[in-house]
Amino acid sequence: QVCPGLRTPQVPVWLCSLCGRHSVLFGTDSLLLSHWRAERVFHLHFYTGQQEQTRAAHLTIDTHSHHWEGDPSSPGKRRPSVEMAIRTKWAGATVSWNGTDPFF
């Protein structure tokens, strides 16, 4: 028997397979699951479990960025795989790594 908390998580959690490695992308705001307005600007944590990563990367996602801020998926500009994975859920979102060097 599976615990109800495992079937319906209280916070958003995504298990990712990026570049052949498994990782976890998660949020701590439960409103992100139930309230569409929480999807404007929100925070996610990204953890790979790799030895070189000592703590989760703190990402800020803005789903309503302005056109004058530049196109995040412009041709010739490579983006980290985790950003591309985030954009499968929120197309056109900008991702800020908050001082952490982007990886993956």
Automatic annotation (TrEMBL):
Catalyzed chemical reaction(s): Thiol-dependent hydrolysis of ester, thioester, amide, peptide and isopeptide bonds formed by the C-terminal Gly of ubiquitin (a 76-residue protein attached to proteins as an intracellular targeting signal)
Enzyme Commission identifier(s): 3.4.19.12
Domain Deubiquitinating enzyme MINDY-3/4 conserved: 5-99
Database matches in Pfam families: MINDY-3_4_CD (PF13898)
Keyword Oxidoreductase found: no
GO molecular function terms attached to this record: cysteine-type deubiquitinase activity; K48-linked deubiquitinase activity
Keyword entries, A-Z: Hydrolase, Protease, Thiol protease, Ubl conjugation pathway
GO BP, sorted A to Z: protein K48-linked deubiquitination; proteolysis
Record bears the keyword Hydrolase: yes
Domain of life: Eukaryota
Family: Belongs to the MINDY deubiquitinase family. FAM188 subfamily.
Protein name: Ubiquitin carboxyl-terminal hydrolase MINDY
Gene name of the encoded protein: Mindy4b_0
